[in-house]
UniProtKB/TrEMBL annotation, chain A:
Organism expressing this protein natively: Candidatus Caldatribacterium californiense
Species lineage: Bacteria, Pseudomonadati, Atribacterota, Atribacteria, Atribacterales
Name of the protein: Branched-chain amino acid ABC transporter permease
Family under the similarity heading: Belongs to the binding-protein-dependent transport system permease family. LivHM subfamily.
InterPro entries referenced in this protein's UniProt entry, alphabetically: ABC_transp_permease, BCAA_transport_permease
Main location as per UniProt: membrane
Gene Ontology cellular component terms for the protein in this record: plasma membrane
C-alpha cells in the first residue's frame, strides 16, 4: 500500500507537468481550433531561459535574498520572457496566415516548431545543460513515512494554483466571457464588439508563458535539459489534452494528471511494463479518439447551440 | 631556404636508405578514419597510432621483408563519405583496410570492401549485426561486440563480487537490449546452480525525464546490484533520481555510460563509487606489446592516447601484419584465411584471435569505478 501511494505521488508529479503544458495547447485550440505544434518547443525555450537566468543572475539574488527568491525569479523570468516569445511567434508565424484556413496554420506551426528547436540548439549547443545544483533547494518533507522533496511539493501546488487562476479567469471574469465567446463563434463575437485580436493575443501569450513556467520547473526538478526534449512533452501534453477534452481547461488539468498516473502505474505494476509504457499511452489516445472524441470532460455541447 | 634544402636532402637520403633496406615494393594498407567531423579527435589519434605501429613493424624488418605503407582516407564520420573513402583506398590498390570508427559509418564501407575483395578490419564498430547479420568473408574487427560485455558482467558479478540478486535495466534499443539479453543468457548457468537470481528485468523509455516509477519498482525488488546497459543521458538521470530516493544499491553501467556528461547529469557526489564495464583504457594495458608501443608513441607525441579505440586500430595493423606473414602472400583470400586461423598474433590488447565470423575471441573487458575526482579507475576487489 505504501508503494502504491508512492507511485501515485510519482504519477501526480509527472502529470502536473503534463497538465501545465496541456493548458497551453487546450487554450489555443479552444480559441483558434489550431494544434500549436510549436508549444512543446516553447516549453524547451522556457527551460533554457530559466537555466540562463539561474546561471547568470540568480547567484546575485540568492546571495541577497535566499535560495527560494532565486528560484522564484527564474520562474518569473521564464514566464515573462516566454510570453514575449509567444507574442513574437504569433506575429511571425500565425497572423499572416489566419485567413488562409486551418491547414496552412498547422503547417506554419510545424515549421515554427522545427525552427525553434534548431534555434535553441544553435544558441545553447546540442549537449545536455545541467541546472546548477547549488541554486536549487534540496530540502525534503516527511509525510506518511514518505520522503518528498520540498521542490516537488512546491511545484505541485504552484501548478495547481496556476490552473485554478486560469479557470477563474476564463469562467468568471468578463474577459473570460469574451474568450469563451470567441471560441464559440469568432464572427459573431466580432459583430458583438469583442476585440477578437486581443483575445487571440491573450491565448498566444498566456499559453507559451505557462509552457515556459513548466519548462523551468521541469529543469529545476530533473536538472538536465536538452534542445529536443520539447517534442516528447508536446506529444504527451497533446495526449493529455485529448484525454481530458480538447479546448476545455479543467479537462487539460484532469487529462494531464490522469495520464501521468496511468503511465506511472503501468511502468510500476505491469511486468515488463517499462518497455511498453509509451505504447500503452498512445493506445489510450487512439481509444479515446475512437470511442469518446470529446474526451473525459468533453466540450460543453449545450453552449454550442 | 637553407633549411628546406636540408629537409629535401634528408628526405631523399632517407628514401635512398629505405630503398637499400627494402629493395621491394611496399605493402600498402589503408586506414579509413574520421580525420574531420564530429569524431575528428578519434580519427586523428587512430592515424597516429597506426603510423607508430607501422614504424615499429618497419623497424623490425617489415612484412615478408617489404615495408608497410599506410594510406589514409577521411570518412568524416558519416556513411556517405565512408563509401567515398573506401572507393579511394580500393582504387589505390591497398591489400587490406583498417576501417572504421562507428558501426553505421563502417557498414557501407564494409560492403564495398567485401564486393572488391579487400580485407577490412574494423577498430571501433561494435554493432552485433556487422558480423552476425549477412555473411562477410573479408570483414574482421579487433574491438569487442556490443553484447560480449554481458558475459564479462555475469562472471564478475557472481564470481568476483558474490552479488546474488541482480537487477538488469535497459532502454529497449538495439545496443542496450543486446547487452541486457546477453547478460541474462550468461547468468543462466549461475541461476541453475542457485548462485544468482534476476530480481528485476525491464526497460525504461529513453528521452523521458522522470524514472521514479521504474526506480520505485527497482527498490522493491531489493537487488544486490543494478546493471544498466544503455546510454549516458538516461543513466545520469537514473543515478541521480535513485540516490535522491535513497536507493543505495551498487550501480554498474555498460560502456556507453561513462563520460563527462554522465558525471554532469548525475552530479559528482552521486557518481563516485559507480562501476562501469568497459574496454581497458590505454593507461591500464601492460602487455609486452603495449609497453613497446606506448614507449614509441610517447616519444613521438608526448603522451599515450586518451581513448581506447585508436589502440584497436594499431592492433588491426599488427593482426594484418602477422596474417600476411603467416600466409606468405598478399592475396586477399589468403590474408582472410590466415586471419581466421592464426593463433600467434600479439596485439597491444593481448593475443588477437578471430572467430569464423570475424569477431575477436576473448576481448578483454575490465571493471572500472569512478573515484572522488570523477575519473575512471581500474577496480580491483
Amino acid at each position: 500500500m505504501r508503494v502504491f501511494f508512492e507511485q501515485l505521488v510519482n504519477g501526480v508529479t509527472v502529470g502536473s507537468f503534463y497538465a501545465l503544458v496541456a493548458l497551453g495547447y487546450s487554450m489555443v485550440y479552444g480559441v483558434m481550433k489550431l494544434i500549436n505544434f510549436a508549444h512543446g518547443d516553447l516549453f524547451t525555450l522556457g527551460s533554457y531561459l530559466g537555466y540562463t537566468f539561474l546561471v547568470w543572475g540568480a547567484a546575485w539574488i540568492t546571495e541577497r535574498a535566499g535560495l527560494w527568491w532565486g528560484v522564484l525569479g527564474a520562474i518569473l523570468f521564464a514566464f515573462l520572457a516566454n510570453a514575449g516569445a509567444g507574442i513574437l511567434v504569433e506575429r511571425v508565424a500565425y497572423r499572416p496566415v489566419y485567413r488562409a484556413g486551418r491547414l496552412p496554420l498547422v503547417v506554419s506551426a510545424l515549421g515554427m516548431s522545427i525552427f525553434l528547436q534548431n534555434a535553441i540548439m544553435a544558441v545553447w549547443g546540442p549537449r545536455f545543460q545541467v541546472y546548477p545544483s547549488d541554486l536549487v533547494p534540496v530540502a525534503s518533507l516527511r509525510f506518511l513515512g514518505l520522503s518528498l522533496p520540498l521542490l516537488k511539493v512546491v511545484i505541485l501546488f504552484l501548478s495547481l494554483g496556476v490552473m485554478f487562476v486560469m479557470y477563474w479567469i476564463v469562467e468568471k471574469t468578463e474577459f473570460g466571457a469574451a474568450v469563451r465567446a470567441t471560441a464559440l463563434d469568432r464572427e459573431m463575437a466580432t459583430l458583438l464588439g469583442i476585440d477578437v485580436q486581443r483575445v487571440i493575443l491573450f491565448v498566444f501569450t498566456l499559453g507559451p508563458a505557462l509552457g515556459g513556467m513548466a519548462g523551468v520547473m521541469n529543469g529545476m526538478y530533473y536538472r538536465s535539459i536538452q534542445f529536443s526534449m520539447g517534442w516528447n512533452y508536446g506529444l504527451k501534453a497533446f495526449t493529455a489534452t485529448i484525454l481530458g477534452g480538447i479546448g476545455n481547461i479543467p479537462g487539460a488539468m484532469v487529462g494531464g494528471v490522469l495520464l501521468g498516473v496511468i503511465e506511472t502505474l503501468l511502468a510500476g505494476y505491469i511486468p515488463g511494463g517499462g518497455a511498453w509504457k509509451d505504447g500503452f499511452t498512445f493506445l489510450i489516445l487512439i481509444l479515446v479518439l475512437i470511442f469518446r472524441p470529446t474526451g473525459i470532460l468533453g466540450e460543453k455541447v449545450a453552449e454550442k447551440v | 631556404m637553407k633549411s628546406r634544402r636540408l629537409v629535401v636532402f634528408l628526405f631523399l637520403s632517407a628514401v635512398f636508405f629505405w630503398g637499400q633496406v627494402f629493395a621491394e615494393e611496399p605493402i600498402r594498407i589503408g586506414l579509413q578514419a574520421p580525420i574531420t567531423g564530429s569524431f575528428a579527435i578519434e580519427g586523428q589519434m587512430a592515424r597516429q597510432c597506426v603510423e607508430v605501429a607501422a614504424e615499429l613493424i618497419n623497424e623490425q624488418g617489415g612484412i615478408l621483408g617489404r615495408p608497410v605503407e599506410i594510406i589514409v582516407a577521411d570518412d568524416a564520420s558519416n556513411p556517405r563519405d565512408s563509401a567515398l573513402a573506401a572507393q579511394k583506398l580500393i582504387s589505390q590498390g591497398v591489400v587490406a583496410a583498417i576501417a572504421s570508427y562507428g558501426s553505421s559509418v563502417t557498414e557501407p564501407a564494409a560492403d564495398l570492401y567485401e564486393r572488391n575483395r579487400v580485407v577490412c578490419v574494423a577498430y571501433g564498430a561494435t554493432a552485433v549485426r556487422l558480423t552476425m547479420g549477412k555473411e562477410r568473408r573479408y570483414f574482421f574487427r579487433t574491438c569487442g561486440r556490443d553484447d560480449s560485455q554481458g558475459e564479462f558482467f555475469a562472471r564478475f558479478a557472481v564470481e568476483t563480487m558474490g552479488w546474488r540478486r541482480i537487477a538488469i535495466m535497459h532502454d529497449n534499443q538495439t545496443y542496450g537490449k543486446g547487452v541486457a539479453e546477453e547478460t541474462k543468457k550468461y547468468l543462466e548457468p549461475y541461476i541453475r546452480e542457485g548462485r544468482a537470481e534476476i530480481v528485476y528485468y525491464d526497460a525504461i523509455t529513453p528521452g523521458d525525464q522522470d524514472y521514479s516509477a521504474a526506480l520505485t519498482k527497482l527498490r522493491e525488488s531489493n537487488p544486490d546490484v543494478w546493471y544498466y546497459t544503455a546510454y549516458y543521458p538516461e543513466a545520469g538521470l537514473l543515478v541521480r533520481q535513485a540516490r535522491e530516493m535513497g536507493i543505495t544499491v551498487p550501480f554498474v553501467g555498460s560502456n556507453a555510460v561513462p563520460n563527462e556528461d554522465f558525471v554532469r547529469i548525475a552530479g559528482l557526489e552521486y557518481v563516485v563509487g559507480t562501476f562501469m564495464t568497459q574496454e581497458p583504457l590505454p593507461q591500464d594495458l601492460n602487455t609486452p606489446k603495449a609497453q613497446e608501443f606506448f614507449a614509441a608513441y610517447r616519444a613521438k607525441y608526448g603522451d599515450i592516447p586518451s581513448s581506447p579505440w585508436p589502440i584497436y586500430a594499431a592492433d588491426a595493423l599488427f593482426a594484418l601484419a602477422q596474417a600476411i606473414e603467416n600466409a606468405k602472400s598478399t592475396k586477399p583470400d589468403d590474408i582472410a584465411q590466415a586471419m581466421r586461423t592464426m593463433e600467434n598474433a600479439e596485439g597491444i590488447t593481448g593475443p588477437i584471435v578471430f572467430t569464423e565470423r570475424g569477431d575477436r575471441k576473448g576481448v578483454p573487458y575490465a571493471m572500472y569505478r569512478y573515484n572522488e575526482k570523477g575519473q575512471l579507475e581500474l577496480f580491483t576487489p
